[in-house]
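User: Okay, second chain of the day. Same drill as before: sequence in, structure tokens out.
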Amino acid sequence: MHLAASLGLPPGPGGRHAVMGTHNRLLGLEDGLYVEAIAPDPEAAPPGRARWFALDDFEGQPRLSNWVLRCEDLELVVAANPDAGRILALERGPFRWRMAVPDDGRLPFGGCFPALMQWDTAPPALPSSGLRLERLILRHPEADALRTRLGALVSDPRITVEPGPAAALAARFATPDGPRDLL
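Assistant: Same drill. Structure tokens below.
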């Protein structure tokens, strides 16, 4: 699995998202963050809509292709960023959250703009893997426009925007064995 090969640790269990016809595996990080490997669930019925994170169009090798930003007031943030999608109420087991999902499943800026979500219950308490996010790099041909859009949403200095020929994400993690990159 791509996460295990890149970060040196396998992700733990996750679950299924019936509304999207997807399933995931999770790897807990320090600071209450986590990395999620998500894919269409071969055992699920087609969702009758485009899957989130443009998974219906995903081609090529596994890679870091999207990120999620937790919001305190999802309605307000989506009102200021309507291309982030329509708000859907989601659940899995005891967990409840709302997430903005574009009708076509494609996030702005080729996935360099985050999926926006708000927890309605406490998020999963994942055991820390000992990994810590050091940097998330968002590369895009319209880097200045992306930086402007993110400026009102994100103040985390670990997140940087750089010009690039195409949309691409890269993350660097501090691990017990030294820095590791997820591309």
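DSSP finds three helices and eleven strands in the chain.

User: Thanks, on to the next one.
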